[in-house]
Design goal:
Helix content: under 10%
Number of helices: 4
Largest sheet: 6 strands, mixed
Number of domains: 1
Radius of gyration: 16 Å
CATH class: Alpha Beta
Number of strands: 11
CATH architecture: Alpha-Beta Complex
Distance between the termini: 28 Å
CATH superfamily: Oxidoreductase, molybdopterin-binding domain
Strand content: 25-35%
Shape: globular
C-alpha cells in the first residue's frame, strides 16, 4: 500500500478503529441538539437533529490516518457532504477558513478548500451503521486528506473565518495543517 501511495510515511496499517478523544463521551439529546453554521456567512444557519438528518445523504469510502501512526483503509462513511451543507449558506467575502466546534469545547481548524473537498463528510454512519457514541455519534466530521485530529467528533457547529486560527490540538503543538503524506504532526 505504501508503494501504491495510500499509506503515508510513518504510518502502520490497522484493521481496528482505535478510540481516542478528549473528555467524556457526551450524552445525545435529540430534542435539544442543534447544529449551527455561523461567522462569515450572510445569514446564520441553525438546524435541529431532525432537520439535519433529513438533508440529502451520501456515502464516501475513504482512508483515515491518525497522527499517532495508524491508518485504516476504505472506511465507509454515510451522512451529509460538506458541499451539500454549504449549499444552504452564502459565504461573506473573505471566508477562507473553517473552525469546527464539537462537544467538550473541542475545536479544529482547516482551510475552506479542504472542508469543501468532495470526500469531506459530516458522518452519521460508519460501515452502514449509526456511529457509536465513542466514535462521535450523532455527528462526526471526516476530512480524509488530513490527520484524524481534524475529523472532529460530536460536531455542533461550523464557524467561517477570514484567518487561520488554531483549534485545540493546534494550540497545543500539533501542526496547523496536518497533512499525513508530509508527516505534519507537530508545529516544530
Amino acid at each position: 500500500m505504501r508503494a501504491a501511495g495510500r499509506l503515508p510515511p510513518g504510518q502502520s496499517l490497522t484493521l481496528k478503529w482505535p478510540v481516542l478523544h478528549v473528555g467524556s463521551v457526551p450524552v445525545f439529546a435529540p430534542r435539544t441538539w442543534d447544529f449551527r453554521v455561523f461567522g462569515l456567512v450572510e445569514e446564520q444557519l441553525r438546524l435541529s437533529w431532525e432537520e439535519l438528518s433529513n438533508l440529502p445523504q451520501s456515502d464516501v469510502f475513504a482512508d483515515m490516518h491518525c497522527v499517532n501512526g495508524w491508518s485504516r483503509f476504505d472506511s465507509h462513511w454515510g451522512g451529509l457532504l460538506a458541499t451539500e451543507l454549504m449549499k444552504r449558506v452564502k459565504l461573506r467575502p473573505g471566508a477562507r477558513y473553517v473552525m469546527v466546534h464539537g462537544e467538550n469545547n473541542y475545536t479544529a481548524n482547516l482551510p475552506i478548500s479542504d472542508f469543501l473537498r468532495p470526500t469531506t463528510i459530516l458522518a452519521l454512519r460508519h460501515g452502514g451503521e449509526p456511529l457509536s457514541p465513542e466514535h462521535g455519534y450523532p455527528l462526526r466530521l471526516v476530512v480524509p486528506n488530513l490527520y484524524a485530529y481534524k475529523s472532529v467528533k460530536w460536531v455542533r457547529g461550523i464557524e467561517l473565518l477570514d484567518r487561520e486560527s488554531p483549534g485545540l490540538w493546534e494550540f497545543n503543538g500539533y501542526h496547523i495543517y496536518g497533512d499525513p503524506f508530509k508527516e505534519q504532526r507537530s508545529s516544530s
